[in-house]
Amino acid sequence: DEVLDTCWFFFFFFFQAEDGIRDAQESRGLGDVYKRQGINAEYGVSVLYCLSTMVGVLSKKRKLVRDGVFAAELYEFLKREVGADGFAGVSHVVTPTRTEIIVRATKTQEVLGENGRRIRELTSLVQKRFKYDEGKVQLFVERVVARSLSAMAQAETLKFKLMSAMPVRRAAMGIIRNAIEAGAKGCEVLVGGKVKGQRAKAMKFRDGYMIKSGTAAKTFVDHAIRHCFMRAGCIGVQVKIMLPQDPEGIRGPSQNLPDVITVLPPKE
Question: Measured in Å, how far apart are the chain's first and last C-alpha atoms?
């Protein structure tokens, strides 16, 4: 009996809903259907509005992936285009009116070109690749303050020295000497690949103080990796520079190392 009563209930509810939807009167949409079934029409319209807006909203995960792909592709493009001009990194800022891309380089005049011609060409290429509207993206060039303390700039210098058949030890020691003379606490250069002969090997050159682990290694150590495509094969180059502490935050981080102890004068 209980099963039969349940079946009759569902049968009655189903046909009541069908009768409510398929009425002889012309329906004005889903809002009218909700009203006939005893549900507030405003609630139904609000649900439809939420569903319609959710279709065009990008999830946080997809947004992070999209921004990461954009940053990686932009970095690789500029590294290949202006690598010979001391490319030292790129950052972008999204404003309500346009997207501003700041290219850091040591030779700003070469990046700008004659009368700004090269920077306009790079802007046009970025605009076409990422499908920006006219005037919605703009490239700027920023000069690197301390060239010898930039790992990217030193890695590019070392790469072109090796490409010009300079001995590895001489090129690596020149990079380390420039970094130490500029005020770096330490420097390390790693060159791996077919340096001499057919057997691949790795050569490491270091001088000064270098932190390898912890949060301070992420804050104080600037590192960069480049690849030299030689005739015998590919040679990998890695440069690490231990930056000095700078209160102004220009040549290095403004905060001190975690193990630095400051002794305050006694109070009278």
Answer: 94
Name, in order, each residue with C-beta under 8 angstroms of 162's C-beta and a sequence gap of 6 or more. 168, 171, 191, 228, 230, 235, 237
Per-residue pLDDT of 232-242, as tens digits, reads: 888 999 999 99
pLDDT at 1 (0 to 100): 54
Q: Where are the alpha helices (DSSP H) in 182-250?
A: 215-220
Distance, CA of 20 to CA of 23 (rounded, Å): 6
Q: Report the C-alpha dihedral over residues 112, 116, 119, 123, rounded to 10 degrees.
A: 160
Contacts of residue 188, defined as CB under 8 A and 6 or more positions apart, other chains included, come to: 176, 204, 205, 206, 207, 210, 239, 240
Q: Full-prediction pTM beyond 0.70?
A: no
**Do 242 and 184 touch, CB atoms closer than 8 A?**
yes
Contact 227, 155 (CB under 8 A): no
